[in-house]
Amino acid sequence: MKRSRAALDAVSVLLYPRRCALCGEVIEAGKKLCPECKKALRPTGDLCRKCGKIKEHCRCDDDRFHCEYAAFAAPFYFDKSIAKGIVRFKNFGYTELADSYADEIVECIKEQFGDIRFDCVTYIPLRKMRERKRGYNQAQLLAAAIAKRLDIPVEDLLIKTRRTKTQRTRSAKERRVNLHGAFDLALGQEADGKCVLLVDDIKTTGSTLNECALTLRAYGADAVYACAVAVVDEDLRKSDAKQHL
Fold it and tell me: How many C-alpha atoms does 101 have within 13 Å on its Cβ side?
């Protein structure tokens, strides 16, 4: 009996290998995280509530647009194995990573947002055609998992009203212009008087979060707090690049 069970376990490992909960890499049985994710960089110390980065790397004073969300929090920097995991989660169907990301985000927002009571969780919407092509919206999966952990409803408050050009290679100003007026309140939804937790997978410049928060505030939301799995820090990337020269 024991031999049969051991044989079944061995076959199971071959067919369904254990994967890191944060990046999806194959790891040893009995482990939860790969070595890289165990030492993943996290925003810690004196953080800017607007951009989520350490104040030494904050450029918010140089930013000319008004921030519509009250505060932002993310448990990780978009770097190395975490970046690899988010790309897999976003583009390659590693949807099982949503639960571990949600655990990390909830712990982070409880620490950084204190006793804020959210009325609901919502997320950055995709255009319907893009969502059908991908098969899911990664931000929606995150929002649902976070809402479950906070025991509050997830609401589909926002829709994307028009196609926008890719943000990847654009400057902060170009990103804001590209997204201006790209979102609206979904038909039959209500934001008036609510304190909303807005979810995305990555924060780069914050333009997408800001435009969505602006829309929610325009429809009467009392406050919008934003969160993501990871925040991009260009200063961190430059520092890492210098170390490898």
Answer: 37
